[in-house]
């Protein structure tokens, strides 16, 4: 009789244990499903970049983000990659949701490359292979200006970049951005051989991208606005007139960060 009672007690204990485990899994599953729905673009079409990355992380287990552009995207002028605008926003995004704690933003910046050269396979192939959820394209117009690429060629290269990545990566959200403001420097004259200033390239590409209805972040204008507000002299933010120093990249990261969590950025 004692053995029977012992067996009955053990059986009830095991039944309770397995029921608790199953019930717990259902609750976890329900919580995950509820969390994912909160970030699902189907239900939240005006979600932010951070929300979209969170959704992708919850859905696939890992969100992917990449940046491409010139040396100011690569991080030239900084003391460490963590001090670049890419490093700064990577750290910011990691703290927007626990699903992004291990987010790494891949850097495909190339020193000296114009927007035309960003179409070269050595640049595009690794990005396409990675299949990022979010891709930022810095327009590289610092180099377009200094290397006398025409405005027409510049705009056509942006069309080709958007077409290439839109077709190859249909699930990737694409964002264009201008480079940082610059001063007079050794890399090129204020007015190039085509009669254009650097600002001409910034303005022409900004207007063109907005007319196309593509997502765009005005790094150039946002940084100048922040510097004016904080009474910061532009030369003090640059290592050599073109490449930001740590101070310049900190301002870039500061003005870009709110854009990442702003609703309706795409």
TrEMBL record:
Keyword Endoplasmic reticulum on entry: no
Pfam families: Lipase_GDSL_2
Native organism: Chungangia koreensis
Signal peptide residue numbers: none
Protein name per Swiss-Prot or TrEMBL: SGNH/GDSL hydrolase family protein
Domain of life: Bacteria
One MF term in the entry's GO annotations: hydrolase activity
UniProt KW RNA-binding keyword: no
Stretches assigned to the SGNH hydrolase-type esterase domain: 69-251
Keywords attached to this entry: Hydrolase
């Amino acid at each position: 009789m004692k053995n029977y009672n012992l067996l009955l007690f053990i059986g009830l204990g095991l039944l309770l244990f397995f029921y608790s485990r199953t019930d717990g899994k259902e609750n976890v599953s329900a919580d995950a499903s509820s969390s994912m729905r909160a970030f699902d673009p189907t239900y939240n079409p005006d979600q932010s970049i951070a929300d979209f990355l969170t959704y992708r992380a919850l859905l696939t287990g890992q969100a992917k983000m990449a940046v491409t552009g010139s040396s100011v995207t690569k991080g030239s002028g900084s003391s460490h990659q963590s001090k670049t605008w890419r490093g700064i926003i990577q750290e910011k995004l990691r703290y927007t949701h626990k699903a992004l704690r291990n987010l790494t933003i891949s850097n495909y910046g190339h020193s000296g490359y114009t927007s035309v050269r960003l179409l070269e396979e050595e640049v595009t192939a690794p990005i396409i292979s990675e299949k990022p959820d979010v891709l930022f394209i810095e327009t590289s117009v610092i180099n377009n200006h200094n290397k006398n690429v025409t405005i027409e060629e510049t705009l056509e290269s942006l069309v080709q970049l958007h077409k290439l990545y839109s077709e190859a990566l249909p699930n990737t959200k694409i964002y264009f951005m201008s480079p940082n403001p610059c001063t007079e420097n050794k890399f090129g004259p204020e007015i190039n051989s085509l009669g254009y200033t650097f600002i001409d390239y910034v303005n022409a590409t900004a207007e063109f991208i907005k007319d196309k209805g593509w997502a765009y972040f005005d790094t150039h204008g946002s940084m100048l606005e922040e510097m004016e507000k904080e009474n910061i002299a532009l030369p003090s933010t640059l290592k050599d007139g073109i490449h930001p120093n740590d101070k310049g990249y900190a301002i870039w990261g500061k003005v870009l960060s709110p854009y990442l969590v702003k609703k309706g950025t795409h």
